[in-house]
Request: fold
Amino acid sequence: MVTTVTEMTKLWANVLKLIKERTDAHSYDTFFANSYIYDRQGNKLIVVVHDQVSKVVVPSKYYDLIIGCLNDIQDDDYELEFITESDLEQKRKEDSPKVVTEKKKSDYFENSSINPELKFSNFVVGEFNKDAHKAALYVAKNGGTLFNPLFIYSNSGLGKTHLLHAIGNDIKENRLPDAKIIYINAYDFVEEFIKIMKAEKDSRALKNVFKDVDILLFDDVQFLAEKVKTEEMFFYIYQDLINRGKRVIITSDRQPNELKGLEDRLVTRFTQGLTVKIGDPDIDTCVEILKQKISDSGLKVEKFDANVLYFLAEKFSRNVRELEGALNALTFSCLNLLDEEKITMDVAIKAVSSIRGGNQIATQLSEQKIVNVVADYYNLTPSQITGKDRIGQIVLARHIAMYLIRKHLDVPLKKIGEMFGGKDHTTVMNALTKVDKELKTNKQLQDAIADLERKIVE
Reply:
């Protein structure tokens, strides 16, 4: 069995040579190139691979192949564990000795830290969030106390927390590298105060945590409602920071005046700065978010059919977290696909059905597939097809989509109307009648319908 670094390096070089012979070039370059043995623990080999995707795919698809290659080289019985360079870096940080000042900092808000992955560069901007993005960017790029506090509100899962972390990261990287920035979720703040009430911690020490804070990023402030003593502590900290000209950014699931259960003195102070809303995302922005997430995970956007992305965007557009969850479920279900295979609507049906349940989602997907196919055929977006634009080309495509949904899925007129901007059944019936009438004499429309029907069943 290998015992030295030289022996491990030689062993893995021979394994890679066999893997290259026994798999295709694309798979080798994607998952195995530049991999290496980091350590041996007993009969376990710790192998470093390129990225998180490889960390998942290699053991699920290629474990037996690697073991076979090892057995062809040596008789030893090995086990394999796969990690990434980022895993190693995290391990080094955890294993490095902690200085006294770090211990003191961890006495409070141990789980509160700025996520280095959440930046402005990977925050997808659309019509629904552009004001919040602009305000957050201004706060990050400029000093002073204009717009203090900045108060961002929206429904859950639409990017408020991402903007908080992006502000912190941008200030640290580009403006004030030595600034003390603290990110706190209201849950953690309440937990710390409970410990104080139980005499496990000192309230004066908690206040002292904020004495040298330059920027406070406070998430989900609505969870302080009805917690009178906790609110008092937060009010003291908040007012002290404001009085000293420090920056405060707060998020909530509703605007300040709708925060029931919070003291008026807090609510009125929240409104003294700038309040901005993140609305519900539009479909096209959701598609861009999906593309960003796919790229961030190391996958290729081209592997996903465009109609799949539009379906996910249409179905989960009210909550970006749900959108990410649906994408994760779909990606996980595709690990056993060959590299050249695309993630199609049929694949998406199975994946999304498993998390949303039942045949209903498959039916919805079929309806959405028709909309997406028609949109692609006429070089439009699905949201244009289902929207209210009255441009001739869009209206024609909309009527054709209605016609195909009715013909192939036998969907009730009322439901079709709901899909297309809340139209009544009479409007839908008129659209269907118009297409039927045109089909009798219009050869161009006949060809278009035939082409679309072939694409729908592909």
